Amino acid sequence: MSANFRIGYGYDVHQLVEGRKCIIGGVEIESKLGLLGHSDADVLSHAIADAILGAGALRDIGFYFPPTDPSCENIDSQKIVQRAVAEVAKLGYKVGNVDCTIIAEAPKMLPHIDAMKNILAKSLGVDPQDVGIKATTNEKMGWEGRKEGIGAHAVCLLVKA
Predict the structure, then answer these.
(1) Dihedral over Cα of 32, 11, 155, 126: its sign
(2) Which of 66-76 are b and which e, b meaning 16 or more Cβ less than 10 Å from the residue's Cβ?
(3) CA 83 → CA 44, 64, 87, 126, 148, distances in Å?
(4) What angle do the packed helices 43-55 and 113-124 form, to 10 degrees?
(5) Can you give the pLDDT at residue 45?
(6) Distance between CA 74 and CA 76 in Å, rounded?
């Protein structure tokens, strides 16, 4: 890889269900519904990890953490983000910044954004000011609007280490 920088995009969704924690961006958010998944189902961290891996032209997180692998059950998604960072480091890159959007009708994300930025910055090896996180609703339209799940989009800039 000869480029001085590379850009990647990631997207993830998880269904909202009873009996699961709602962990987004490494933060456990009080909610009657949580996210369903093999790991802790942290939709934001998964989108970020896939953006990092995509920027490195690598495979997605399912390759590194297969849902069929029992050792990945309920894994902390910060480990997934850290692995993505380690994989691109092998290629001579580090994360420059990430920008993300969470799409959810509920719970409210704004009170948790700063904590998410701090946790993700640590996992990414960047300053919190290099982690952009926004939240929006889907204006009550579609599966997100019906509170059936939460989605997240992320872009990542990798720079030569």
Answers:
(1) positive
(2) eeeeeebeebe
(3) 15, 8, 6, 15, 29
(4) 40
(5) 98
(6) 6
